Amino acid sequence: MQVATAYSFGHLHRGNSHPLRLVAFGDSLIYGFGDGVGGGWVERLRRQWMLPESAGHVLYNLGVRGDRTYQVAQRLENEFRQRGELRNRVPDAIILSVGLNDSARVQSPTGRSYTDFEHFKTVLDNLLNLSQQLCPVIFVGMVPVDESKMPFQDCLYYSHADQYRYKEATKLACELRGIPYLDIFDKWLDRGSDWWRPRLIADGLHPNAAGYQSLFEDVTSWEPLASISH
């Protein structure tokens, strides 16, 4: 683990007189699938930062639908190094959001995990270590699924129990490295099913426009991002 030499997101907003360049890596939650209105929470944040009165940060959406953690890890460094801009040879920070696809079970609710749990922890460690050696990192967690809508695409079964297990492993791995982690899963469940269920599209997996608007509000009110937005 490269904790001693890792970059800290907490100090990113200090000493930067120019707008920052950020890249967002992950799955469909980063890509914004399901939101035909605002294009997802990352796109909403990108547009906000384009307003004349904003901080003027630049945000690249590098989400890929269906990506699991190992796929994000495979492409991260190459895509990161292609997103330098103007004075910046490479981006200033990385936003990560991945893990939901890893947590699915294949063919039945008790089938094999799409990504074996122990293997997931190994590839997650690799992803976080690599990311944190490149620049400061923050992690935005997954939304809860609607279990009554499973299976997804007739073969993948997502459950809150599996989501929780993978989420907690991710949260712990981030805490050990000092990476800020936003626990969307717990935050949304705490608001009750009458609140979060209407914020998912019919597949029970992806947020709709209202869901992504809520995600946008959760993320932008979170101290690590709020601190660089003002």
Summarize the main sheet.
Answer: 5 strands, parallel
Q: Which spans of ≥5 residues are poorly predicted at pLDDT below 50?
A: 1-5
Number of helices: 9
Beta-strand residue fraction:
5-15%
Query: First CA to last CA: what distance?
Result: 32 Å
The gross shape turns out to be globular
Please tally the β strands and state the result: 7
What is the helical fraction, as a range of percent?
Answer: 40-55%
Strand order of the largest sheet: 2-1-3-5-7
SSE ordering: EHHEHEEHEEHEHHHH
| Rounded radius of gyration (Å) | 17 Å
Overall pLDDT: 92
Secondary structural class:
alpha/beta
Task: Tell me what you see in this structure.
- Helices cover 40% and strands 12% of the residues.
- It is built from 9 helices and 7 strands, in the order E-H-H-E-H-E-E-H-E-E-H-E-H-H-H-H.
- Helix 2 (41-49) crosses helix 8.
- The chain is globular and about 50 Å long.
- Mean pLDDT is 92; it is low at 1-5.
List keywords for this structure.
disordered N terminus, 5-stranded parallel beta sheet, alpha/beta, 230 residues
Q: Strands, helices and their partners?
A:
Elements: E1 21-26, H1 28-31, H2 41-49, E2 58-63, H3 69-81, E3 93-97, E4 105-106, H4 117-134, E5 137-140, E6 156-157, H5 160-177, E7 181-182, H6 184-190, H7 193-196, H8 209-220, H9 223-229
Parallel strand pairs: 1-2, 1-3, 3-5, 5-7
Antiparallel strand pairs: 4-6
